[in-house]
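Postdoc handover notes: sequence design on the structure in folder B. Input tokens:
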């Protein structure tokens, strides 16, 4: 294909998509980066780390701050009372923690080890002038790797067949056919760094056709003007347009009021027969009760060859690295972990040794730079209205 042809093809608009949205990334820094004026430099700051981090990252934190209070060394009450700053890896941070400072001491900055900040009371942070910073893109490679791993595991039925072998069942390969990934249509909700890396892998390694629903993202994303370069894809203006066309659905969007239960009974009914879904965003983006009901149905039997109106489930299988209740336990999974056609992992998308060290060091550096008065990087604020067209 000639370069000019690639430039023409890199974005195509679905017929139901006449008008591009005029918005930005799901994660918008609010307000824009600006010089900060904290009351003390990093070399005098006490930082609390309320959840376990890799030992290398903990050792590095102690080179950047005067005092580091690790979760295994101090109780939560003491940690929050003494903290000038916080390095948070999947911690739930609410008003009670943020207002726990003793003697007028208060948290001034929070560094998030990762991207999502729906577990933090952002409104309370704004009220108390607490700067919150995340690390977008820092673990995109490893999360994309898990996206691919779960997709292949679903298509080739790896966990199911492994369980049956361990239970002593004798199986013939002809009776346990899977499905190939090559050439499939992959639909993605969200266009962040992880979605981009996963899309690159699906498209370039497996010749997959990429379809996108990301209403708050500019149409320049993944185009020739994008710093990450162009990637051929088709944009859709609604889930109703996207879901009936795709073989694989992967979710990479933030959790907002608009995206909560975004995939529910209605949307599952729109899915293409035999499709699979992988949720890498947040558990509550998918209605777990509706998903369990769909996956519990018998396999779809078509009334006529090639039609999509038969009886049974349309979604063949699903996987999720995230759950509405975390850390997940089997009895809190709304029955999903009882199903043979569902794969669950305990929010390990960014959990490799290399990624945990690298991302935590980035969060530490951003927090230390904030205390030292440098420009704030990756400040978090309101999530953009990721409108899914339900209202």
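Designed sequence:
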């Amino acid at each position: 294909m000639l370069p000019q042809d690639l430039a023409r093809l890199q974005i195509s608009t679905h017929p139901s998509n006449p008008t591009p949205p005029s918005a930005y990334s799901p994660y918008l820094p609010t307000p824009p980066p600006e010089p900060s004026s904290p009351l003390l430099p990093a070399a005098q700051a006490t930082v609390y780390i309320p959840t376990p981090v890799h030992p290398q990252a903990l050792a590095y934190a102690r080179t950047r701050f005067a005092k580091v209070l690790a979760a295994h060394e101090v109780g939560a009450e003491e940690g929050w009372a003494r903290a000038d700053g916080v390095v948070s890896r999947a911690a739930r941070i609410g008003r009670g923690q943020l207002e726990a400072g003793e003697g007028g001491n208060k948290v001034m900055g929070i560094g998030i080890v990762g991207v999502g900040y729906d577990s933090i009371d952002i409104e309370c942070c704004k009220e108390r002038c607490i700067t919150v910073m995340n690390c977008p893109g820092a673990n995109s490679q490893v999360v994309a790797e898990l996206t691919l791993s779960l997709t292949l595991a679903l298509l080739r039925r790896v966990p199911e067949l492994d369980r049956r072998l361990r239970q002593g069942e004798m199986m013939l390969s002809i009776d346990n056919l899977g499905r190939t990934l090559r050439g499939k249509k992959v639909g993605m909700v969200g266009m962040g760094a992880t979605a981009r890396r996963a899309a690159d892998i699906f498209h370039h390694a497996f010749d997959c056709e990429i379809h996108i629903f990301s209403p708050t993202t500019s149409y320049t994303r993944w185009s020739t003007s994008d710093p990450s370069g162009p990637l051929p894809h088709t944009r859709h203006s609604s889930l109703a347009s996207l879901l009936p066309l795709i073989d694989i659905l992967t979710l990479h969007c933030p959790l907002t009021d608009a995206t909560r239960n975004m995939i529910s009974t209605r949307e599952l009914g729109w899915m293409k027969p035999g499709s699979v879904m992988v949720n890498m965003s947040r558990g509550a983006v998918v209605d777990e009760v509706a998903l369990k009901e769909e996956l519990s149905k018998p396999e779809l039997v078509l009334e006529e060859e090639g039609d999509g109106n038969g009886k049974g489930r349309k979604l063949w299988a699903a996987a999720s690295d995230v759950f509405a209740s975390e850390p997940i336990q089997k009895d809190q999974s709304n029955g999903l972990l009882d199903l043979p056609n569902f794969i669950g992992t305990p929010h390990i998308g960014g959990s490799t040794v290399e990624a945990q060290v690298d991302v935590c060091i980035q969060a530490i550096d951003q927090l230390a730079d904030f205390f030292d008065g440098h420009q704030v990087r990756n400040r978090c604020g309101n999530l953009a209205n990721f409108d899914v067209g339900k209202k």
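Context for whoever picks this up: The two ends are 42 Å apart (CA to CA). Don't rerun without checking with the PI first.
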